[in-house]
Design brief:
The complex is a heterodimer.
Chain A: H1 2-15, H2 19-32, H3 40-63, H4 68-78, H5 81-109, H6 119-142, H7 154-174, H8 179-182, H9 188-192, H10 203-230
Chain B: E1 2-13, E2 16-27, E3 31-35, H1 42-50, E4 57-62, E5 67-70, H2 82-91, H3 97-110, H4 126-138, E6 144-148, H5 156-167, E7 174-178, H6 182-188, E8 191-196, E9 199-205, E10 212-218, H7 223-226, E11 232-235, E12 240-246, H8 250-259, E13 263-270
Parallel strand pairs in B: 3-7, 3-8, 5-6, 6-7
Antiparallel strand pairs in B: 1-2, 1-4, 8-9, 10-12, 10-13, 11-12
Helix pairs in contact in B: 2-3, 5-6
Classes of the chains: A mainly alpha, B alpha/beta.
Pfam family, one (chain B): ABC_tran
Protein name (chain B): ABC transporter domain-containing protein
InterPro entries (chain B): AAA+_ATPase, ABC_transporter-like_ATP-bd, ABC_Transporter_VariousFunc, P-loop_NTPase
């Protein structure tokens, strides 16, 4: 598997397709911390949203990198289509690590926060960035590696899902019935609402965390099944 | 031992049936050629055998662990140098770097691409890329080797090299290939499957033809050729004759011709 991850990583880096999303991400972080004395958790909440968008972009670029014949050669070497998907995801998470570390440590190094970091803040921050990166990878995979990857509408559909998930709270406040529809979109607010000025661990927090983990597990299973269905 | 079995298998892509009622058994060690016109479903059948395509209906059983696959056209957008690419592909199968380097060197010599090992694949010619495609498949040490029109883009000398390489491969290796060229079918296949409109219309074991040799010679006069034991004699010019003889008799015929003052111009072995 490590050889495949290396293959994907080198192939992707040499394609230079990573430059636009990574540049936008870095610019976002620089602008976010252009002012000093900013609140810790809400700033990290914003950088989590950035990682969500960027990981979707990177996943879509990575899954659309290979033509059919290259994919079939890789299937033959890896021995299974599932290993191919896993390898792609491993590569994406490897790419996510420096992005996340940059988002977490840049403001600390530049002394941008109005308060000191605590262990709880670190845990919540890493959790939040990882969850948002997973959401991004899942959305990107869904619209580039499954039957939903209709070329003309793939990017539009991915953007629609991201916008709906980010706007879900406002949409539900406007029209309450939408809560029965919007639960299918990544539950970003279940995480981000805990990234306020104060970090409170209560029952609501744990319910949201459990819901997010269940959501990720189920979505991962669905995406794997849809990928295998497309590659039948 | 049967390694692939299909019973009335069907494959549908985007609502269109591309393979219909495929019933087929392939045994270990068989060398199977799939022929047919363009668009007949040869490549799709190859992909069904390899598991890249799953059957939409019917039944398919595959008992093979390692599959080597050579596509008709080597991918265009691979951003590696040839050796780097082959090393990475070989490592995906858990092979060590030192072993791979040795094997890549051997294959590179066979296919005459040693000078291109450090060339980016993007800058290689179509034929060189095709050779890289064949080497990556051989590096798997496959139980079954699937070749989709493997001679596409190869020069004549390399076609013969590839044929010899495949023919000399271990007996347990199953080879399934699609081809238009008679060179590969005649030289390698022991079974020929013909496909038309996504259906198998013929599946024949190829009879092993007796080897014979064609001798082209310049003779002083036409009466000499009459005394030669042969299958067929054909005068190309007044003093140039083409004599077809069984392989076992060729040495004897050559001796006779030389003793009679004839000059040998060409000797070709055929089946």
């Amino acid at each position: 598997m490590s050889a495949f991850v290396r293959y994907e990583l080198l192939n992707f880096i040499r394609s230079l397709k990573f430059i636009p999303p990574v540049v936008i991400y870095l610019a976002w972080i620089f602008i976010l911390y252009a002012y000093k004395n900013v609140p810790i958790l809400s700033s990290y909440g914003v950088s989590s949203i950035a990682i969500y968008l960027v990981m979707t972009w990177l996943a879509m670029a990575m899954f659309s990198m290979e033509e059919e014949s290259e994919k079939h050669i890789l299937f033959a070497h890896l021995g299974s289509k599932w290993r191919y998907l896993r390898g792609k995801w491993h590569t994406l998470f490897l790419m996510m690590i420096p992005l996340m570390l940059f988002a977490v440590f840049f403001p600390i190094i530049t002394g941008s926060f109005n308060d000191g970091m605590t262990i709880e803040y670190y845990l919540l921050t890493f959790f939040c960035h990882t969850v948002f990166a997973i959401f991004g990878v899942l959305v990107g995979t869904l619209f580039s590696a499954t039957g939903l990857a209709v070329k003309r509408y793939a990017w539009l559909s991915a953007v629609f899902v991201i916008v709906c998930s980010l706007a879900s709270k406002s949409l539900i406040e406007t029209a309450a019935f939408l809560k029965w529809v919007l639960w299918i979109f990544p539950p970003v607010f279940n995480v981000i609402e805990h990234m306020g000025n104060e970090f409170i661990v209560n029952t609501d927090f744990w319910i949201n965390i459990i819901f997010v983990i269940i959501y990720i597990t189920l979505t991962t299973i669905i995406v794997v099944l849809l990928f295998l269905k497309k590659e039948r | 031992m049967i390694i692939f079995e299909a019973d009335r298998a069907r494959k549908k892509i985007d609502g269109i049936n591309i393979l219909h009622d495929i019933s087929l058994c392939i045994s270990r060690g068989e060398k199977v050629a799939i022929t047919g016109h363009n668009g007949s479903g040869k490549s799709s059948l190859l992909k069904l055998i390899g598991g890249f395509y799953e059957n939409t209906s019917g039944q398919v059983k595959r008992i093979m662990s390692k599959t080597g696959y050579v596509p008709e056209h080597f991918p265009e957008n691979i951003r590696f140098k040839m050796q780097e690419y082959l090393l990475l592909m070989g490592k995906m199968n858990g092979k060590s770097e030192s072993e791979l380097i040795k094997r890549i060197q051997i294959y590179a010599e066979i296919f005459a691409i040693t000078d291109f090992l450090n060339t980016p694949l993007k800058n290689c010619s179509k034929g060189t890329k095709q050779k890289a495609g064949i080497i990556q498949a051989l590096l798997i040490d496959p139980d079954i080797l699937l070749l989709d029109e493997p001679l596409t883009g190869l020069d004549e000398a390399t076609q013969v090299e590839l044929l010899n390489e495949l023919a000399s491969y271990k007996t347990g290796l199953t080879i399934v290939f699609t081809a238009h060229e008679t060179l590969l079918i005649d030289g390698l296949a022991d079974r020929v499957i013909t496909v038309a409109n996504g259906r198998i219309i013929a599946d024949e074991k190829k009879e092993i033809k007796e080897k014979y040799r064609c001798i082209k010679a310049i003779v002083p006069n036409q009466t000499i050729a009459l005394e030669i034991p042969s299958i067929h004699i054909h005068y190309l010019e007044e003093h140039t004759v083409e004599i077809t003889v069984l392989c076992d008799h060729s040495d004897e015929v050559l001796t006779k011709l030389l003793e009679s003052g004839c000059s040998i111009v060409e000797l070709i072995e055929k089946r």
